[in-house]
Design goal:
Radius of gyration: 21 Å
Structural class: alpha/beta
Distance between the termini: 14 Å
Strand order of the largest sheet: 3-4-2-1-5-6-7-8
Number of helices: 13
Helix content: 25-40%
Order of helices and strands: EHEEEHEEHHEHEEHEHEHEHEHEHHH
Amino acid sequence: MNLLWITWKDHLHPEAGGAEVVCHELTQRLAAEGHKVTLLTARYPGSKQREESNGVTYIRVGSNRYIHPLLAGLYYLRHLRNTFDVVVEEIQGCAPYFAVFFGRSSHRFLFYHQLARKNWLYEVRAPFSYLGYYILAPLATRLVSLSRAPVITVSESTRSVLAQYGFDADRTHIISEGLHFAPLEQLTGIQKYSRPTILSFGAMRAMKRTLDQVKAFEIAKEKMPDLQLKIAGSSSGAYGRAVLDYIAQSTYQTDIEYLGRVSTQQKAELMQKSHVIVVTSVEEGWGLIVSEANGQGTPAVVYDVEGLRDSVQHNRTGLVTQQTPEALAAGVLDILQDPQKYATLQANSHRFSKNLTFQRSYQDFLTTVEAA
């Protein structure tokens, strides 16, 4: 194949997350098998406008997340249209490139990890947040659905949401997720922290609702005095500063450790040593950190939102709670105060995580593309 993948960020972008890991793993495998792969993405400080790495050509256009889709779309029309067998348009934040409408390739796909419409209400100031949530996001999504292009996604939740915007569920294909680092072969011998520990992992952003996790810890701490909280991830931006300010004023500030950004090795170690990970995003495509933590022997307590209700099977691999700090705290206590339940959830989640490999994800992707 001669494949073009259009996306907002590549795996080297400072704000790269789970979606970028998926893109990187799939495109690397494509290139390794002899396919020609080009990634059209955004610039970031220190990046090159064009470069090749491990068989993948990177073209970077624009750096502003709001203007990038327009600039990348125009670049595609001027320089790349009709030069690829397969075009994959990955849509993040409801900002399409509309590439699926142009070109002669019959193999054009939309890739949605999540719709991300709700992010407008958390990440953008009013009144623009309302403009995005109520008008721009639904309008753009419905327009893209008119292309009738097949859709690739990673969860049943996202497929259900897309169906509400006119996408044919029969033409929306789910590929499995993969993990950035392999699950442990077995759980025997894992050394947890001496104190029960909640892990909060990921950049402090309003849509991640990190502050809810801190408040849930404070509530649970009242009934479990030796409980501690460890937070890893970037705190840049106004929301991150607000979270750190809140922690500084907390009655339990000495039991909260902020670690900042950590390496992949430190990430794996944190996930092994912690007792439970909490995830409170507004929505996710899947929630890779849940499955990564499961693979290291740590079950999750998560909010009942798209994606997270797919990566966590309630009362089987973890707990899914209502979207309040009080409910999250109750879930944490439920897991940590019942050793038998904890052991069951830990074993089940670890077993489930072993099914999530990028090789399987890659095979799902190839099957979808070849069948279109």
